């Protein structure tokens, strides 16, 4: 199975700034509770067009991120039709191989796959992520003296491997999941933005 997915990432978690997971250290609280979304500005999966759709995750990471054994709830954009949903899930289950298979092998258990309205907005370096009634976060990046967004590159862990991550903070982060045992309401914690290009030839 081949795929070409080009788009943007929004990610937020309950770690302080910057999340230690990205540099291979243990989470601030011993565990990390996170929400992230890959929005496909351009996307083809075995000829199925998934452009404009978003795949989101709510996860609980029980320790060091590289040890895996994450628990995850997967959210499929409710705008996706049956064919698009099936194609996206083949990729994000790891069955299609490639860079996303390397990422999802960290999952120990997928507790549920749900359809949900997903709001994904980035404008002027600021971002909003809303996943149904489960997640709402407002993100903004840090900037350097030139006004350019601060970047993290060549980190040992990344949800957008090969691309720079734009580090920042969440002005607000609300996440509630009975399946994951989460009831989070925080301000000023870790946030990551970035762009990705995931490609795999069958």
State the secondary-structure class: mainly beta
Q: So what's the overall shape?
A: globular
Relative strand content: over 45%
The number of E-state strands comes to 13
What is the terminal-to-terminal distance? 5 Å
Mean pLDDT across residues: 96
Tally of alpha and pi helices: 2
Helical content band: under 10%
From the alpha-carbon coordinates, what is the Rg to the nearest angstrom? 16 Å
Note poorly predicted spans: none
The main pleated sheet reads as: 13 strands, mixed
N-to-C SSE string, H for helix and E for strand: EEEEEHHEEEEEEEE
Task: Summarize the helices and strands and which ones pair or pack.
Layout lengths: L2 E11 L18 E14 L2 E2 L4 E8 L8 E8 L4 H11 L5 H7 L2 E10 L1 E6 L2 E6 L3 E7 L9 E2 L12 E13 L4 E5 L2 E12 L2
Parallel strand pairs: 5-6
Antiparallel strand pairs: 1-2, 1-13, 2-3, 2-4, 4-5, 7-8, 8-9, 9-11, 10-11, 11-12, 11-13
